[in-house]
């Protein structure tokens, strides 16, 4: 089932938590809302769930206006940060509960509970009470309870926040497999870019109540539209160089070599950004740059300031005439103080705006 948000606002007193969001989430899509703390992710999700009323705007599920409808009439399931498990019931009965409410036969309920528990790696915990579980186990029980009833729309708010790195990675694969096999439309809130990149069909990067860019994970990484998105996605973040467009249409930047190498399409975009009086940057991902000898053709002369070996790759921090940036190199034999030549793959240079135009 599709989910539509039409110019949705949510204000709490003088705080605008959600600032006129419009987006269509397609049937069966895995949609991630990604952004820093306080950007409005949870509030947006709670409005889709019906736990919060929008101050303005409309929410449609499967084309039907549900803006003022009770949560229980929306055919959605939720898994939130604070598990919401019944403490006096065993894990089995917690997961079984939504099936009982729907009047399923006992043998059918038992099968579904066992299948779901198996998938989420909690089959051996079915007899325990929530109080006897770790945070991560409770989180998985809450996921199981939401998924067991095969909802049409599934809402998740940081469901893996309490798991260790390894379990988190395996759980994210499991969730993704499960919901795509079942074809459930999923809206997933996270502040973890790796999680969003790995799971989403589309990501909405949010900042201060706005969806700043909504696109596929690759596009968000490859063509961030604004400085905020460029900075938020990728580790280390995209290198950004302040740039401007002259009257004759030439692009200026320090180092100028990056402006000179800008591909035609990005040059056009740079002009459009400048025309609408937006501040302009040239951006390039650290992993799309390389280090060679100083004085090389098309390279920018720089000095190595710091070297951070990470095993497979090395972060090399450089200073080129006062512009500091980082290069992710595969293999490096440079050390602090070395004079080097840094080049950027021309097809990887991007024109980036400060704000959405
Ligand atoms: P986090 O990642 O920390 O959970 P978030 O992106 O989910 O953050 P929200 O919880 O949606 O952010 O909050 C958005 C803004 O709305 C914040 O400034 C928050 O303080 C404010 N806010 C949220 N709920 C309320 C409320 N009930 N009353 C007043 N302000 C609220």
UniProtKB/TrEMBL annotation:
Gene Ontology molecular function: any one: ATP hydrolysis activity
Alphabetical list of CDD domains matching this protein: ABC_MalK_N
Keywords: ATP-binding, Cell membrane, Membrane, Nucleotide-binding, Translocase, Transport
Pfam families linked to this entry: ABC_tran, TOBE_2
Occurrences of domain ABC transporter (ranges): 3-233
PROSITE patterns linked to this entry: ABC_TRANSPORTER_1, ABC_TRANSPORTER_2
Protein name as annotated: sn-glycerol-3-phosphate ABC transporter ATP-binding protein
């Amino acid at each position: 089932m599709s989910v539509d948000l039409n110019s949705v606002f949510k204000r709490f007193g003088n705080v605008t938590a959600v600032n006129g969001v419009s987006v269509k989430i397609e049937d069966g899509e895995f949609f991630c809302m990604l952004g820093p703390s306080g950007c409005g992710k949870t509030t947006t999700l709670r409005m889709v769930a019906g736990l919060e009323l929008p101050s303005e705007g409309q929410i449609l599920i499967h084309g039907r206006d549900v803006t003022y409808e009770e949560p229980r009439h929306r055919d959605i399931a939720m898994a939130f940060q604070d598990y919401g498990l019944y403490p006096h019931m065993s894990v089995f009965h917690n997961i079984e509960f939504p099936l009982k409410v729907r009047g399923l036969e006992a043998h059918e309920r038992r099968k579904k509970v066992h299948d779901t528990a198996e998938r989420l790696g909690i089959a051996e915990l079915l007899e325990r009470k929530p109080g006897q579980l770790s945070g991560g186990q409770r989180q998985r029980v809450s996921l199981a309870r939401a998924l067991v009833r095969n909802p049409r729309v599934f809402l998740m708010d940081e469901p893996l926040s309490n798991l260790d790195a390894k379990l988190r990675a395996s759980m994210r694969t499991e969730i993704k497999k499960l919901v795509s096999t079942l074809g459930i439309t999923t809206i997933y809130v996270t502040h973890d870019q790796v999680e969003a990149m790995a799971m989403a069909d589309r990501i909405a990067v949010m900042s201060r109540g706005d969806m700043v860019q909504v696109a596929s994970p690759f596009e968000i990484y490859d063509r961030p539209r604004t400085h905020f998105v460029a900075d938020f996605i990728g580790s280390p973040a995209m290198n950004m160089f302040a740039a401007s467009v002259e009257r004759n249409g030439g692009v200026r930047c320090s180092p100028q070599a990056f402006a000179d190498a800008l591909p035609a399409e990005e040059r056009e975009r740079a002009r459009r950004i400048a025309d609408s009086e937006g501040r302009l940057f040239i951006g390039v991902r650290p992993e799309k740059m390389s280090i060679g000898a100083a004085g090389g053709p098309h390279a920018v002369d720089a000095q190595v300031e710091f070297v951070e070996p990470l095993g497979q790759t090395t972060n090399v921090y450089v200073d080129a005439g006062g512009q500091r940036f980082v290069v992710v190199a595969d293999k490096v034999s440079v050390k602090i103080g070395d004079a080097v030549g840094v080049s950027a793959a021309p097809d990887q240079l991007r024109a980036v705006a400060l704000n959405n135009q």
